Structures are given as C-alpha cells and as structure tokens.
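quick one before i forget lol
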Amino acid sequence: MAERLSSLMKDIVWPALVGVVVAVLYLQQQSIDELRSGLAAARAVPQAVVPAQLPAAAASYADAVERAMPAVVNIYTRKVVRRVPLVDNPLLQRLLERNLPQQERVESSLGSGVVVKPEGYVLTNHHVIADADEIIVSLHDGRDAPAKLVGIDRETDLAVLRINLPDLAVINFGDPQKARIGDVVLAIGNPFGVGQTVTQGIISAAARYGMELSIQENYLQTDAAINQGNSGGALVDANGNLLGINTAIESPTGASVGIGYALPVDTARKVLDDIVQFGQVVRGWIGIESQGVPEYAARGLGLAKGQGLVIRSIYREGPAAAAGLEPGDIITHFGNEPAMATRAGLKRIAHAQPGEKLEVRYLRGRQSGTAVLTIGVRPVR
C-alpha cells in the first residue's frame, strides 16, 4: 500500500505540483512584463503641456495717465457781480441802480482744460469761462498763468484760451471714429476743486444727440465719473490719446451717476483750428431746412432706416437753390455716403470747406436726379 502511494505521488501528484508552480511563475512574469510595457508606453506618451501664463488685461493705466495728465490743466475764473442791496429783481435793479448804492461781489468758479498746441492754446468748455472777468490756468507742474480768451463757439459749447508759458506739455490727439463701445477710457480733470483726478470707465455709446446741450451734438457717452469741475477736461483712450472734451453729465442730483458726455475731438479740433485761423468757426452750408423721411415712407422708396433728408424750405440765394434743388426733394446721398437724418449725418455738411464741390443725389417724386453744389459759409447764428 505504501509502495502504491509512493508510486502515485511520483507519477501524478509531483508533476501536478510542479506544473502549478511553473504556471504561477509564468503568470508573475507576464504581469511583470505587462507592467514594464505600460511604464514604457507611459514614458513614450508626451506629457500634458501646461500653457504659459497669458498676459492679463492691463492692470494699470499709469503709462496712459503719465502721457496725458501733464497736458490737462485746472481753470479758475473770477467774475465781479454788481447788485443793489435788498433788491433781487434784475429789472428793479436796472431801474434803481442810478439812485441807489451798489455792492460788488466776486464770484469764482472752476473747471478743466487741455493744452492742445505748444504755442499755448487751451481747449475748454464755454460754460466754464462764460462772462469771466479773469481766467487763471494752473498747470500740472505747479505753474499758473493768466489766460486770454481767443474765441468761443456756442454751438459746441467750446472755448479756446491762450497762455504765455514756455515748455508746455501738449496732449496727443486720438481718433474717436475708431473708438468702439466697450473701449476703456479715462476722464482727467479737477472735480469739485479737489485737484487733478483720474477716473476710469468705458465708452458706453457713441453719436449721442437730442439732449439739447448744444446745437452741434454728437457726443461720446461714458460711465467714467465726471463731476462739477471736470468740464473742459480730457477723455483719453487707454494709450493716453485725447478722444473728447468732457462736457456734461446726466444726473438728477448734480453728481456723477455714470452717464457723462464728451464732445469728440475731431469736432473740437475743427473748432480750435478755425478759431485760431479765422477768429470764429466756419461751417459749411447748403441753404436748406430739412427733416428726416418717416420710416414707412423710406421703406416705400427703398431707402435704409434713417436715410433721406426732405427739403422743407430752401434759401433763394443758397447753394442748393443755385444747383436746382427744390422744396419737397429728398436728398438720398452726399457723394457716395447715404444722407442720414441725424446730427452725425449733417456733420458732413458742417465740416465741409466753403468752396468745396459736393455731389448730391436726390429723389423728386419717383424720379432720381443728381446735382453738384458749391458749399457756402453758414451764416453766424
């Protein structure tokens, strides 16, 4: 029996055990090989590339401020007011002023301005210096100088001053036509007389008109804080280039609520150049009174929304009459540009040079026509 068990172990069990051991060793080796293969494959796969830190949006506009601020000035005015004591009615004051003693009171106000020419020319708002007996300009570098009033333009509420100082910092002009809604802008001025201050915002809208702030309305709107004393100061882009002259705010309280208006610098530049050269602003004129085409009528005539100027009346000796235009005609194009019934559209005529030839396309009934006008000088209002 023992011999039989020994033979069984020798013939069956031991081979089986050896086979199991061999199988285990084989499987272990396979696992090791697979592990090595996996590690090799992992090494062969490129590692995920961590993107370099992208430059963040400009965290500081200090460079722009450094370029623009030296050209922005503070303006102080003084005005002597004469009145008859105890009589507040202006009519009674005029009637009694010869017989009653008068008192004098000095009123002062403040605003801002921008040096725009190295010869000492400064742009500001007309309402900043209106009726002033004395105008003082205070520079960023601490110098003060009396200013001479060169000229005013009530239609844009602008005034040109001149100071006699050497080595003036002059601002660079930007292009408001290329400015987009959402662009960052900086307002620089002297709010409430606290001293030169910079506020930051964006262009909220362009070509704003209809606020009855002035005749030539075509404002840039911004939410950069503009307060009393900022009038006449600079609205600059993120590079420090002048885009507009801060002029007014929309506010029920008189303080900034995020709706401010700046006159675009291309309009301001024409005012500046004309006043320096001619002493007044010279605007183009074609001698018509016009109104926009109603939207339903524009659709029927195949015109775009807002396109078309209906001639309501015409000056007999004006350029339009000389070119053969008549009341009732609808001007559709100035040159190749659609004639838009907005102040921005009418700026094309106001900015034209007297003597310039301008082709006008128009509709008379259903018939189209073309006339060539010679731009005239608009009478001073």
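fyi DSSP finds eight helices and 21 strands in the chain.
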